[in-house]
């Protein structure tokens, strides 16, 4: 009594690289909703966005210095 062993059918998945590239291209071209929200925040609250940029800049400098 022999059993017939067959290989499982190969599964195909859509290529994710095309969708990642499309998303990145849309984000870099200013089409992303997060960028639109950031621009609206900066226009509505210029002093708050400047303070946020300053705090992030100081944090980045301290990170690069290693302290």
From TrEMBL:
The keyword Membrane applies. It comes from the Bacteria. The chain crosses the membrane at residues 47-64. Keywords: Membrane, Transmembrane, Transmembrane helix. Residues 1-16 have a biased composition (Low complexity). Residues 1-20 are annotated as: Disordered. This is DUF3618 domain-containing protein. It comes from Sphingomonas vulcanisoli.
